[in-house]
Automatic annotation (TrEMBL):
Name of the protein: Tellurium resistance protein TerC
Superkingdom of the source species: Bacteria
One cellular component (GO) term of this entry: membrane
InterPro entries, A to Z: Integral_membrane_TerC
Length: 232
């Protein structure tokens, strides 16, 4: 029963993180392909969607291949904290589109993939961390990533990137970041007891992620005081 509960919890985490970290690549792709000739638009959408999926598959494969390398756990932890900041920024800035649309299909697709790269990296590292070594669950997360991309602009997804639900996402990302750091191979080479690291790293990571989101949201609401010289 405990194993089934842990698996169910991990599956819920994968779904939540996919929704929270779904990049805006699909929307960017849809907007960018409007600059293409009509005959190339469907081809651009299909190839672009395939590239976005392939980029996520490559990140997930690399994450599992490098999971046991010293330092990778700390890298994953830093990426998840970055993901908390990124999710707060998305809630702040809304959707982002390509600044310089192009009519060249290959150049346009490369620009879309490049813009989506940070989201792809954090999305798949979060899925890998939440899957806790279950390849089937990670594969499920990968399979869900493409429809989640399409849902990236949906109003209910936007609610996950704003208070109060963004705090839940930040807490989850920070907790997984702490678990990732505690599982790093470097920890075994230090005099620090592994049990101590496993007990304290997740809450420390959660606190750090919450702090990052708090500072980001505070900066959004900050307004400088008017210059007294212009009051008259």
């Amino acid at each position: 029963m405990d194993g089934n509960l842990a698996l169910t919890t991990a599956a819920i985490e994968v779904v939540w993180l996919n929704l929270l970290l779904a990049g805006d690549g699909a929307m960017v792709l849809a907007v960018a392909t409007r600059s293409l000739p009509h005959a190339q638009r469907r081809l651009g959408l299909n190839l672009g969607g395939l590239l976005l999926m392939v980029s996520r598959a490559a990140v997930l494969f690399a994450a599992f291949a490098c999971a046991d390398l010293p330092g990778f756990g700390f890298f994953g932890a830093a990426a998840l904290i970055f993901a908390a900041w990124l999710s707060a920024r998305r809630g702040e800035d809304g959707q982002v589109v390509l600044k310089s649309p192009t009519r060249a299909l290959s150049t346009l697709l490369l620009a879309v993939v490049a813009q989506d790269a940070p989201a792809a990296l954090t999305n798949m590292l979060a899925v890998q961390a939440a899957a806790q070594g279950h390849h089937v669950l990670a594969g499920l997360g990968l399979g869900m990533s493409l429809p989640m991309l399409a849902l990236g602009a949906a109003p209910f997804v936007g609610l996950l990137r704003k208070p109060p639900l963004i705090w839940v996402g930040a807490l989850l990302l920070g907790w997984l970041a702490g678990q990732s750091a505690a599982a790093d191979a470097f920890v075994a080479l230090t005099p620090m007891p592994p049990d101590l690291m496993r007990d304290f790293a997740p809450p420390i990571g959660a606190a750090l992620a919450l702090l990052v989101v708090y500072v980001t949201l505070r900066r959004r609401h900050f307004r400088p005081l008017p210059d007294e010289n212009h009051e008259q």
